[in-house]
Write a structure and sequence with these properties.
The chain is built from seven helices and six strands; from the N terminus they run H-H-E-H-E-H-E-H-E-H-E-E-H. By secondary structure, it is α/β, with parallel strands linked by helices. It has one domain: Molybdenum Cofactor Biosythetic Enzyme, Chain A (3-Layer(aba) Sandwich), CATH 3.40.980.
Amino acid sequence: MVGHDDEHGDGGHGGHSHSHGHGHKHGGTPAHGESPAQEHRSHAPTHVSCFVLTCSDSRAQADDVSGRALREGLEAAGHAVVGQSVVRDEPEAIRAAVERGLEGGARAVLITGGTGITRRDQTVEAIRPLLDKEIPGFGELFRMLSFQEIGSAAWLSRALAGTVRGALVFVLPGSPNAVRLALDRLILPELGHAVRELSR
């Protein structure tokens, strides 16, 4: 995993304080009562069962920093991590692990690693055939936010999201900074709402 994954890891962005002037408007109250999005969220599940998967040819469970960041972020927000795994960046192994997560009851599968453009970056190719629906806005917004953090290297990321059999699947870069950015700014604010939409 090189390119974007390495760039995101070396940018010196620490814990992503996100002090961009345009951020975090979620908490504000509109002048005329609740917005439709806020109303939706009030009926959304607050605890989502999640499966965390790391795709890497070099990392073992012990040094899986990005997988640990995903687990800790999800659990801190009140979600349950029903399983966690590290597999090689091989499409068959990745798809088998996703199947295990879904069979274990996960409503969201969060995958880190293998989203760059090297020959070994195969996570996107492994996941895309499984998708019932792709959610393009996730990748678009992730790259926009990433551009603000690391500059032009952001376009080398092929991060994506979609749905598989009534569950959400997120494919994220391999660096801890990228994982935290996606989790804090995009995934956690909408996870319960999105899972509720999937069950309608």
